[in-house]
Amino acid sequence: MQRLKEDGAWEPPAVERMNTPELEEEKRRGPRNRGLEAVKVRGVGAWGGRRVAGRREGKRGAVSPPPQGQERVRKSSVDLRREIIDVGSIQRLIELRKQRRQRREERAATPEPSPPPEPLEIVCLGGPRTFLRAAVQGKMRVIEKFLADGGSPDTCDEFHRTALHRSSLEGHTDILQKLLDSGATVDFRDRLDCTAMHWACRGGHLDAVKLLQDHGADLSLKDKLLSTPLHVATRTGHPDIVEHLIHCGVDINSPDREGDTALHDATRLSRYKIIKMLLLHGADMMAKNQAGKTPTDLVQQWQGDGAREAGLSRELGYRAAWTCHAS
Questions:
Q1: Which pick of 176, 220, 267, 289 has the fewest CB atoms within 10 Å?
Q2: pLDDT higher than threshold 80 for residue 207
C-alpha cells in the first residue's frame, strides 16, 4: 500500500521482486508468505494477465523478459528482398523496370518461329492409306513423295475411291493438278460408278469442276442411280455449279433411275434459286417420273412451307401457261 501512495500505481509483488536477490533466495528455500501473496494477487481485479503472472510466480517463478535492446524485429518481404538484391537507389529500380518492359515488348514484336518441316523420310511410312488420307487433308508433300517413290496416282481404297475422288470432294485443286499431271484417270469410277466430277459437284467446288473439265472429264456420265453431275449439284444445293453445267450444255432433262429430272429434285428439296434457273433454261415441267408425278405435282405433294411453296406453284404455273401459249 505504501508503494501505491508514492507512485500512484500499484504493482503486484511478483513484478516488484522480479530478478532480485530475494527472488533467487526464495527459489532455493521456497516462497515466503505464499498465502498472503496469493490473496493479494487474486484481489487485484479482472486483469487476467496479473492473475496468471501471480500463479506462475507462486508455482515455478516468474519468467524474465528479454533484455532491453534485444527485441525481435520482424522483417517484411521487401526488407529481405533488399538484403538479397542490392537495387542501389530508386533510379536503379526504375531502370530495371524499363529494361524488363523493353524485353517484354521485344518478345511480343518478335514473330514466332515456324515449325520445322516434316522429314521426307517418314511421311509415307503408311503407304497407300497415308497417301489417300493426305489427299483429304491437303498434304502436298506426302502426295509428291508417294508419286516420286513410284506409287500409282490411281491408288484406291476398298470402295475404289482414288485420291482424285477425295481431293475433288475437298476442293484441293493443287493436289488435283498434281495427280492429273502424274497420269491419274480423270473419269475413274468408284463402286457406285461415281467419277471425280460427281464428287466435286457434291463438295460444291466450282474450281475443281473446271479443272477436271479442262482435263477432259465427261459431264454426262451417270452413276449407279443414273444421276448426272447436274443431279448431284441440284440435290446438294450449289447454284453456281448448276449454272456452270447448264452453260456447258448438259442435258437439263436427263432422268435418273426413278425418272426424276433435276427439276424434280429441286422442287422436292425447295431449291428455289435452282428451280428458277432451270425454268429459265428450258426445263420440262411436264416430265413425269416413274411414279407419274410432274414437278408441279411434287410442289403440291411436298408443300410444307406455305409462302415458298406457294411461290413455287405460281412460278411453275406461269411457266406452264407460257409454254401452252407458245405451242
A1: 220
A2: yes
